[in-house]
Amino acid sequence: MIRRLPIRLKLTLAFTIVMAAVLTATSFFLYLRLRTELDNRLDQGLHTHLQVVSTLLQQGATGGAEAALRESNQGRDGTGFAQILANGRVVGATEGLRKAPLLSAAEIRRAVSGTSTFDLDTDLAESGAVRVIASPVRTPQQQLVVAVGTSLEDRNQALSNLRALLLIGEPTALLLAALAAYAVIGAALRPVEAMRTRAAAISAEDLGQRLPLSAGRDELRRLGETLNEMLVRLEGGLIRERAFVADASHELRTPLTMLKAELELMQRERPVGAEFDEGISAAIGDTDRLARLTDDLLLLARGDSERLPLSLQTISVAELLAGVAARYAQADVSVRSAPDGSASLSAVADRARLEQALTNLIDNALRYGGSPVELSAQERDGSIELHVTDRGPGFPPSFIAHAFERFTQADASHGNDGAGLGLAITWMIAEGHGGSAHVANRVTGGADVWIAIPVEQRGAVQPTAT
Known about the structure:
Blueprint lengths: L6 H52 L5 H9 L7 E7 L2 E5 L11 H9 L2 E6 L7 E10 L4 E9 L1 H49 L17 H51 L4 H32 L7 E4 H10 L6 E3 L10 E4 L1 H18 L4 E8 L2 E7 L7 H4 L21 H11 L3 E6 L5 E8 L12
Parallel strand pairs: 7-9
Antiparallel strand pairs: 1-2, 1-5, 3-4, 4-5, 6-8, 9-10, 10-12, 11-12
Helix pairs in contact: 1-2, 1-4, 5-6, 6-10, 7-8, 8-10
């Protein structure tokens, strides 16, 4: 049941329970403290009275016990009384006190053994509830028991007034505290309600709105700032996703349109022989381009949604470069001679992904740059750099800053079979290895594109299933 309550009521209820416990403990302590203080004062006065009576009896007051009692009661407020007992009989008593013993036989025997205190409720005294202190006194003539007492009416009245005050004041204070807590908690949660209202109004079509922030530098403001930062990331991701979908649709439309046109032409013209073979080859080429483009888009989409899966193993960098260069036997692609010590470089990486990245770079170099294309590797600042250089015109200066963006091409006039995804995939592969990708124009002419990956990857160096 409590779980279903609003958080404002939960906090108020918790505060009220704690406050009730504190007030109850405080009231109990105050009551006990006052009762103890009143009892101590009563006992102090009774002991003084007892000492006076005992001293007068021991000194043999003229007139006996009655005279000792009258003399000891001089100057008192009239609420005190005394009895002198001998062998259980009253031999002296304060004026107005009945002659029957205040104490029972058992209480008298206890008093004979030593000073004792008794709280009595008796009709022998006009005051009703009384406190009595009894003590043995030895006189030259006999063994006596002196009992002095006083009424508890004032003490009990003071405690009763305090109880009434606490019973009225404590619930009132608790109610006021609960109402104040409810109002304060409501004010504290008001920024949360404002953020909730604004969040309910934000939609995918209007991610530009931000949550309102509280004025204080507190936890709620930090929560609002964190949520606003999340909205910024979501907005950026949505913008990139929409751009990706739009660009992908545009890039897919071209090969699909060409493929459809070629098939319609073949259906209409019904070519035979060499013309048929030429049409089929063109359709297959467009299909291959469409398949490559689809694979690239799927790879990029997968990299956006999760970390690029890698199968890490220790590989030889020299063997990697030689294997990639061997694929281009018909082109002028070679591996530059390694400096002393760099031929034995090794790295913990995904060989297939690195081959894919280098292949993209070589294809770009052959398409937009100029022969020969050279592959090289070097170690720098704890990273291994894999370079692909050409001797073409290089990149336009305005393109370098956007080289690794998707669907961007330095010069689309060199052919229409590219989608501008090669460098974007290369960047994603480098980033998946914890590294980076870079482009630059060479001083001697041509472009230099390279990826840098850490020498050692975090985690196991054994191949991992993906």
